Amino acid sequence: MITLTSDFGSPYPAAMKGVMLRRTDAQLVDIAHDLPRQDPRAAAFWLRETIPYFPPAVHLAVVDPGVGTDRRAITIRVGDHALVGPDNGLLRPVVRRLRESVPEIEPTVVAYEIVVDDPESATFHGRDVFAPAAAEVHAAGVDSIETVDTLTSLSLTDCVDLTLPTATRDGETIRGEVLVVDDFGNAITNIPGEWLDDFEAAVIDGDRVPVVDTFASVDPGERLLTTGSHGYVECDVNQGRGDDAFGLSAGASVTITPTEAD
Amino acid sequence: MITLTSDFGSPYPAAMKGVMLRRTDAQLVDIAHDLPRQDPRAAAFWLRETIPYFPPAVHLAVVDPGVGTDRRAITIRVGDHALVGPDNGLLRPVVRRLRESVPEIEPTVVAYEIVVDDPESATFHGRDVFAPAAAEVHAAGVDSIETVDTLTSLSLTDCVDLTLPTATRDGETIRGEVLVVDDFGNAITNIPGEWLDDFEAAVIDGDRVPVVDTFASVDPGERLLTTGSHGYVECDVNQGRGDDAFGLSAGASVTITPTEAD
Amino acid sequence: MITLTSDFGSPYPAAMKGVMLRRTDAQLVDIAHDLPRQDPRAAAFWLRETIPYFPPAVHLAVVDPGVGTDRRAITIRVGDHALVGPDNGLLRPVVRRLRESVPEIEPTVVAYEIVVDDPESATFHGRDVFAPAAAEVHAAGVDSIETVDTLTSLSLTDCVDLTLPTATRDGETIRGEVLVVDDFGNAITNIPGEWLDDFEAAVIDGDRVPVVDTFASVDPGERLLTTGSHGYVECDVNQGRGDDAFGLSAGASVTITPTEAD
User: Fold this and answer.
1) How much is the pLDDT for C261?
2) Which of A27, A159, A223, B103 has its CA 20 to 30 Å from the CA of residue C116?
3) Which residues of A touch B122 (CB under 8 A)?
4) ipTM of this complex
């Protein structure tokens, strides 16, 4: 199985699929191709929150503002998974998550540089560099990844890192950040849901907003704070857009003070 | 084969796919993930009009404004098909359609409640409740659905029903309703196409509009009434949007009086 | 393998998939369903630039403003590939490209009309005419395409042709045209990239714009000319939309005079 993630929109992912299907008969599964454009941080979040639900696979992920520069193309093996993409950090959070998810077996984590001499284009390495590499890793098998000709060993510590920010608590005040806004307009923060577990409401930007378990706990159009499916506090609206109602976008700071209900 | 239908946009469907592919090697086929948000009626229409074209399969369908409340999660078997989704009625019209499509063999129709204790999230039952159930039904086989551990028998009559409205005729006056507006802007009504079969035009909202077999029968930009691919009268524009030109949206009433051409 | 290309948006492609999966167990791969509406020329470009990356397959392509009129439905075999779609020219450029790509083996090129009496609808031949034909060709095998009942021989020269315009050079002045604008807003012209190979800049619409190898060669928000992944000159903006910045849309004329950098 090969999963595909990019900010390519349509129809560019199809050329990557063709390239891979000429080299392997892998099942292809799209994760998303409409991720925020040229934003490796948002892609890092979605990869981290999505790939761990998959069985062992090769994961092709291309959000690559530096395409055509001398940034590296890399592959990272983590146990039975292999991740393929540009060396701009977008693969690092999911590598950590996959590693932590099975600490008892200490999964193999090995990095490789993908070396392709003179790719067909300078602007579409998804098609010309990453897709061929993903297909070759799949064809060889992740546990024989070292046999793939176009890969040369690399130290993971030499790869670009990217860490998603973490929230902090200072007395009763929680300070976090919006990591991404999803398709529903839910503003997903980096505040762990359990920090609000014992509270019925919280003050955000001067307003008291209910802390609830589910959207339907408030009337349609009303604001709410809840623990989303990723385990983080989300600023949402029942049947509406939280980003608009709270005035939040990706990267925005969020200060929350848990409190009792009115 | 498992088909997927939702209003989840992107990239949430990918987590459902990962969950299913960990449990079964089913072929996954997307029907749509951009259905009108939190609108079980629109989803019911599209499921009814699309699923009957598929071979026997498990069909996962999640448009679920009540997620996290005590609404049931259900599975309905209809012959060789199984439908999995929330108990808000969205599965009922396609169940009736599948049943009617092979009346001679009286397909087995059985309902089950999906019982999952303490799902991982309260807001993403697509991933935590429905996808696991669909995968388990697929792995067991639809004709052995009763062996799936998480299913308990349920009377179909105890499930929430949802019926799409039907059009009426009173003398020459036809009264119907727009069921959905499709991606092209075609306003699809519930008026059977054959009710206009012998007419060359109809008066709608005071204007005489031609009744034609195909878009290209009128000039680009011109309004038309035609029998769409679902068998219903559509209010369309050749190479344009019928919803804008007729001022119609989903749920709008439509009154049509068939007439002769000018 | 069957690839699917259309301007149908969602969820209409799903009905085509169901129809095909009732007749064959082919792997289905979406190329795109959001191509510019009712624009066979844009579709012809994307098919030509995408399908050659695929292994031998059946390719279903439906952008069909003449649906329901007496335009033919056709299938064209080119070597190990078969193309299925309306006879409006959209298949011709990719047929030429596939043929040229292996001139040494002179691939078989044969055309057939698809004859379906009384299709279920007059407006959705993707579902009722083209999908069944694609599935039947796949089931028979491309090299036994002549055994498919619904196909009757046709001369390729009797099919509608469509040629994408070519750019011209007159002294130092290059005159071309924008063929398509992609999802990123890149305005892709028909000017061969090598015509700008030795230049560092070009004057377009009175302004001097750098000719570079990659987006990151200019600052974010700055305009650039580069050779895109299809081999043509593109009018782009680093991390922005070239169509807006250059004031270009599909079909627009582009006059470029290569020059030295400032």
Assistant:
1) 64
2) B103
3) 213-214, 226-227
4) 0.96
